[in-house]
């Protein structure tokens, strides 16, 4: 069993209205000093087999095909 | 300027229909060997000042009040 964590974030320069809304909400809750918030997604994936190389290749392919929109998003895969 | 990453994940035992949908989609894309997928959220927060202790306390408070629903979600704060 291999566990991996994939973190998908918007590329720099891509507008993030959700992050802006969170900034506004934090400000309304009187949190000061927040410069910027950007929201992304995290996927925790459990793979049945124990072949690390194959798991990493598979997960990169999953990101390219399904989990991330590589036009506007970056992804990072960490085996844990 | 302090940058922090907050990762919010569903607690164990909480149903994750979004993760189940991703499992189904991966299976439809012929990825085999995927045991489980769970989806969470990531927030990249930039804080204006340089006081690490205050930043960490503030971000924990933001998580408790806004970013995470602590009934069903866990959060982890990493200063980067």
From TrEMBL, chains A, B:
Q: In which pathway does it act?
A: Purine metabolism; IMP biosynthesis via de novo pathway; 5-amino-1-(5-phospho-D-ribosyl)imidazole from N(2)-formyl-N(1)-(5-phospho-D-ribosyl)glycinamide: step 1/2
Quote the EC number: 6.3.5.3
Q: Where in the cell is it found?
A: Cytoplasm
Catalytic reactions on record: N(2)-formyl-N(1)-(5-phospho-beta-D-ribosyl)glycinamide + L-glutamine + ATP + H2O = 2-formamido-N(1)-(5-O-phospho-beta-D-ribosyl)acetamidine + L-glutamate + ADP + phosphate + H(+)
Q: Does the keyword Cytoplasm apply?
A: yes
EC top class named in words: ligase
Q: What is this protein called in UniProt?
A: Phosphoribosylformylglycinamidine synthase subunit PurS
Q: Which UniProt keywords apply?
A: ATP-binding, Cytoplasm, Ligase, Nucleotide-binding, Purine biosynthesis
Upper lineage is: Bacteria, Pseudomonadati, Pseudomonadota, Alphaproteobacteria, Hyphomicrobiales
Q: Into which family does the record put it? A: Belongs to the PurS family.
Q: Which Pfam families match?
A: PurS (PF02700)
Q: Which domain of life is it from?
A: Bacteria
Q: Its biological function?
A: Part of the phosphoribosylformylglycinamidine synthase complex involved in the purines biosynthetic pathway. Catalyzes the ATP-dependent conversion of formylglycinamide ribonucleotide (FGAR) and glutamine to yield formylglycinamidine ribonucleotide (FGAM) and glutamate. The FGAM synthase complex is composed of three subunits. PurQ produces an ammonia molecule by converting glutamine to glutamate. PurL transfers the ammonia molecule to FGAR to form FGAM in an ATP-dependent manner.
Q: What is its main location?
A: cytoplasm
Drop me one GO molecular function for this one: phosphoribosylformylglycinamidine synthase activity
């Amino acid at each position: 069993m291999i566990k991996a964590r994939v973190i998908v974030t918007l590329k720099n320069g891509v507008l993030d209205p959700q992050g802006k809304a969170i900034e506004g909400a934090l400000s309304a809750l009187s949190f000061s000093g927040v410069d910027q918030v950007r929201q992304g997604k995290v996927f925790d994936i459990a793979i049945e087999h124990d072949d690390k190389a194959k798991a990493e290749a598979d997960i990169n392919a999953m990101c390219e095909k399904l989990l991330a929109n590589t036009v506007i998003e970056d992804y990072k895969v960490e085996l844990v």
